[in-house]
Amino acid sequence: MTGRKRQRYFHIFCWVATIIVVLASCSTQKNTSTTRAWKAFTARYNTYFNGQQAYLNGYNTKLTGNKDNYTDYLPLLLVGNKNSQSLGKGDFETTVTKMEKTIHFHSIKKKPIMKRGRKMSKKDKEFRKRIEYNPFLKHAWMLMGYAQLQKGDFIEAASTFSYVETLYKSEPEVRNRARAMLALCYTELEWFYDAEDLLNKVRRDSIPSAARKEYNTAMADFHLKQKHWEEALPYLIKEISQLKNSTEKARCYFLLGQIYKTLGRKAEAYKAFKKCMRKSSVYEMRLHAMVQQTEVMEQGDYNRKIKKLMRLTRQTGNKKYLDQIYYAIGNIYLSTSDTTKAIEAYETGASKAETKGPAYASLMMQMGDIYWARERFDRARSCYNSAVGIMAKEHERYEDVSWRSRVLDKLAAPSEVIFVQDSMRALAQMGESERLAIIDKAIEAEKKRQKELKARQADSIANNRQTTGDQYAKNDRTNDKTPSNSANANDGADWYFYNQQSVAQGKEQFRRLWGNRKNEDQWRRSNKSVLAVSDTPEIDYE
Questions:
Q1: How far apart are CA 281 and CA 64, in angstroms?
Q2: What's the pLDDT tens digit per position in 98-141?
Q3: What kind and span of H or E run contains 487?
């Protein structure tokens, strides 16, 4: 072996030996400045980095896939929307796994060895009180709690933040961040007493700058969940200022507008909805913000706004939003006290609604309120019945609308008789020319209604034929791929009586066609005595 080769092998040996010594010195069983720095470095750029990327992917999935109910107060947190809680769950679970791995392999619990004869300073004493000495692991613990929170596992996240509060009790910034997030978990669980106690502790500690973001979020959510609107406002405004994503800002501006509207501060609500429209890239959010603006608008050029909305009704892409657009038009007419045109707009929106969701329920509820105030109880009943079948039970007006619907089931029929009799008497007392004019107008209105009804029925038949054809084609493809014994395996999942919305709409349709009927045999017959002597009562002879 030549001298040059020996020298090269010697250098390689020295490098390998150095690496082995460094790695050995960086064991979790040792606690020196070198081991702490090395463990912090490897934790940050290995498993933590991968977990953080998974968290960002999961949060982006939740943000882009989130579908809010704009007819109710928006939840401050995306995870507060129960329909979107499962979005990104796989990525969040990956984050939790990566953080557990990071903590397991990079935690340093061993106390540092102090030099003999050296007097410990106050700073040294505070340092030795720590339980965890890896300076980066606090980020791993917090990220794990965030991921559990975004999954909707509030109790699991609360246990993580509670442990972090204890683990980092000698580090005020980390402790107060964990306390604020723990309070946020308690608020989502509606444990308001415990949440308030924690937030008071954070406030007494004078809130370090690193914990202000979590504290503002927790305080805003705490007051919003309890509908303390005035108390929530300053924290919600701070929350908006610390957000960077435009979609998140738009959601919070929409919520801010809703709160201002509830408090009667119409000018500020109008501005908040306007900011929402500027920030949002989601068309449905912008449209709902415009609808909400019509409910808080001050005096202005109403004709110009109505023309703008009418242009929207003629755009093909807005076909599924027609009920919301006509609802906005009706609101503008209502703000000018033109109740007749407002009702016409609401009726048009109801007839053109493609899907009967929360927006449709708001329209029917608004129309029901107008008929209720005008004592047209028969029409109010129909509106309230339609609305209550769609509204969520958590809606703030659900109990009120449900009660009115039940009352009107009994009151509507006699009130309709009174209304018709009064109308006939008023008509009889009119002059002949005036009476004939009203009759001709009623005939024209009925012809128009019948024409529109036939057009809708024709469209419905065409759509049904198309849907049936598509379904047959789909079934043929399914039968080619799926064994016959499993073809009906999941039929029960879409059964009519498991869908509460369909059942409620079916009841309303039944009432319109048959009126209120008792649940009894031969309910279609007015005279049941004919069948009373039959030996086979189960046979229907109609």
A1: 10
A2: 999 998 888 887 776 666 666 666 666 666 767 777 888 889 99
A3: none
Write out the DSSP string of 229-282: HHHHHHHHHHHHHH---HHHHHHHHHHHHHHHHHTT-HHHHHHHHHHHHHH---
Degrees (nearest 5) of the Cα angle 271, 277, 280?
135
- DSSP symbols for 413-430: HHHHHHHHHHHHHHHHTS
Bigger pLDDT: 520 vs 178: 178
The 10s digit of each residue's pLDDT in 366-417 is: 888 888 888 888 888 888 888 888 887 877 888 888 888 888 877 666 655 5
Task: Provide the 10 A C-beta neighbour count for residue 404.
Answer: 24
d(CA 319, CA 299): 29
Burial class (CB in 10 A: 0-12, 13-18, 19+), 156: middle
Residue 530's pLDDT is 41
Maximum CA pair distance of the chain? Answer: 130
Report how far residue 199's alpha carbon sits from residue 215's, in angstroms, rounded to the nearest whole number: 8
| Residue 54: other Cβ atoms inside 10 A | 23
